[in-house]
Amino acid sequence: MNGLTKWIHDQAPSRESFERSRFLRPFAHRVFHPALWRFTRRSVPRGVALGLLVGIFLLIPGVQIAGVALLALPVRANIPLGAAMTFLSMPATTPFILAASVYVGNTMLGLHADVARFQTLISSGAGFSEWSAWLLSDAAPAMLFGLFVISVMSAAIGYVVSAWFWRWRIGSKWRRRSKAHAAGGSEY
Description:
The protein has about 190 residues and is an all-alpha fold. It has helices at about 5-10, 15-20, 30, 45-60, 65-75, 80-85, 95-110, 115-125, 130-180. Helix 4 runs antiparallel to helix 5. It is elongated and about 70 Å long.
């Protein structure tokens, strides 16, 4: 197992951790189907894309992983990899994702949500009334539309990159095997 594969395997939630989730228990018979836990050329890019889409758009810890697990059913995505991808939207990256989404929403919709005010609200620990006033301005549509655009674009890029990486990785394994076979030895 190479370094990246080992890291992903170590970071991804285990099947047992999902079985203990009270949110997933009603869907356990479907969520724990073995095909959703295998790393295949089709399930890996789907898992990456689904994890990025849900992880960036939902930004609510815990709900992200449950969302990936439930949405993986119809698209047959790899659940552990999808769940691991949601960790890209962690507390350290969330303010940047939200600021970028407000910027994208403002630019694409022609709105004037105040990004500086958003950063001030975060740093000052603003209360519910201050956040409500900010969200009732142009901020909510700008932020939601921007989150949608960023999550869809991230998912598309993640799908393409992971599909390419999977193809490259399998191709390099086959080349090594054919070289070993041509040299008269065996890789195993």
